[in-house]
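ok so for the tutorial part 2 we go from a plain amino acid sequence to predicted structure tokens. step 1 is just haveing the sequence, like this:
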Amino acid sequence: MQEDEIFKKVSEYLMTQFEIPPEMISPGAHLFKDLGMDSIDALDWFAAMHSEIGLPIVEKELKMIRTVQDVVNYLVRNLR
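step 2 — the prediction. this is what the tokens look like for a chain of 80 residues:
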């Protein structure tokens, strides 16, 4: 899956699961400050991705994720 496809999937997930308006979602949008997520939301999201697609959960890396682009980069690295 290409980076732009992953960004689209991440955006769709944010819109449907967290009811975030599409105009708020950009690569640089901060998950917590800009999109209103909290750490529990983020953990639930990554747990769901782990269950759905077998995405590995690397706690050290998860602590570094702050923006939508960080999520995309994490997925690009771990979906190979």
